[in-house]
Every structure is written in structure tokens, then in C-alpha cells.
């Protein structure tokens, strides 16, 4: 049964994140609407309580585009909202991309914990973003964001420190994925006798006849340790991923196509 639903313009719900944004001890959810029309920017992210009522909105600044990908996590004891704009321009060039962590204030506005721009034109930092558990021991979750590298522009990921946005590590797709590496990203224990593993969906990877899709797995050192290659042409597996935790055995990974 449906508990409740929310209708909204601009493809509301394209991206979703759950956290206690206002610190009242109850989980809220944020929903991105990347096509919401603005005079000076495009898209928005709304924060809802369980009623559901929207009690805060992050709107883009001039010439910004937000809402395509968002995430959330515990940033130093306060839940924060990760927003991105993969088409953001800077002095370094066009489409460098941008990732920022926002904290909700008592007046329902947002303050910035950090913001990170891409290093080069065309990098499109932040087309997809998730948060990971605290890896550095500073009490802040880390941020994993996709980015494009090299003349070919194929995607990889950058691991950003959740406290200041500094780059911890990077990973480039091991083969051509037609800019789809990291379309979906999840963390789990998918292999027996192994630690946490990251899975990266790449739904436009050609493994045989075309657009079969693939999923890449990386271990604690960031190196790719295994690849799942889909076999049916056109199924574009890796568009969506979900983990089912299991205590008695390795976690199950669900792979969805487009």
C-alpha cells in the first residue's frame, strides 16, 4: 500500500536522499527536480518531512543546474545534503562540474560545508554522487562522485574527503564504458571472506554486440578486482544497483537494466 505520495514539477524525484536534515531525531527525505524551471538557474532540491510537507528548498544560483544527483550523510555529527552540478563552469573551463555539501540552518536556509569544482573543462564532476562511511576517522562520511577523464572523456570516480572536499583517491574505468561508469554505485560485502566492496554500474558498456552493460567491483585499495559482463544485447545492465545485506553469507547484488 502507498503511505503517501508527493507530486511536483520538474521531474521531482529524479534523485532521492534520506537523512535527519533538521536534527529533530526523525528521518526526512530530499528530492531533486532537475527540470524545474528557474529564471537564473535550473532545477531544485526539496526537503520533506513525514507528513509529507516540504519545509526547505535548495535553489540553484545563477547559471547553475541542480537536482540530477544528490546524496546525504553524517558530516561531523550533523546530517548534510550533497548537491551537484555536472555542467558548472569555472575559470578552469566549461562543464568542469561541481560538488557541494550543504547543512540546513534553523531558518530553513542552507550553509556550505565545502564545495569542490572539477579540475578541467569537460570533467563534469558530479554526474552521479553517493556517500561512503567515514574512511579517515574524522567523523565525516566521504563523498564519491563521478568525473570524466582524458581526451576520450570516459568516466571514472573521485573520492572526496567529507570534511573539506580534498581528493583522497581516483579511479578511471578500466575499459570504454561510453561515459556510463558509475551510473549506479553501491557499497556492500558481495564476496565471501572479503571486506566492503564498491560496485559500479556501467550500462552502456559494449561487451559483445552492443549495450549489454557491465558492473565493476573495487576493493579497499580502489583497484578493480572483478567485472560482471552482461550477455544480452540492448539490456543495458548496470543502470541501477541495490544491495541485499545477508549475515550468513555474502550480500546479494541486484542489477537492473534500462
Query: How far apart are the termini?
Result: 26 Å
Oligomer: single chain
Give the biggest sheet.
Answer: 4 strands, antiparallel
Return the average pLDDT rounded to an integer. 93
Secondary-structure element series? EEEEEEEEEEEEEEEEEE
Poorly predicted ranges (pLDDT <50, ≥5 residues)? none
What percent of residues adopt helix (DSSP H or I)? under 10%
- In angstroms, what is the radius of gyration? 18 Å
Task: Please give a quick description of this structure.
With 258 residues, the protein is mainly β.
Plain-language structure description:
With 258 residues, the protein is mainly β. The chain is built from no helices and 18 strands. The protein has strands at residues 15-19, 28-37, 42-48, 54-58, 70-75, 78-84, 98-104, 110-117, 129-132, 142-149, 154-160, 167-172, 185-188, 197-202, 214-218, 224-229, 240-244, 252-256. It has a four-stranded antiparallel beta sheet, with no helix packed on it. The protein has a four-stranded antiparallel beta sheet with strand order 5-6-7-8, with no helix packed on it. It has a four-stranded antiparallel beta sheet with strand order 9-10-11-12, with no helix packed on it. β3 and β4 form a beta hairpin. The two termini are 26 Å apart.
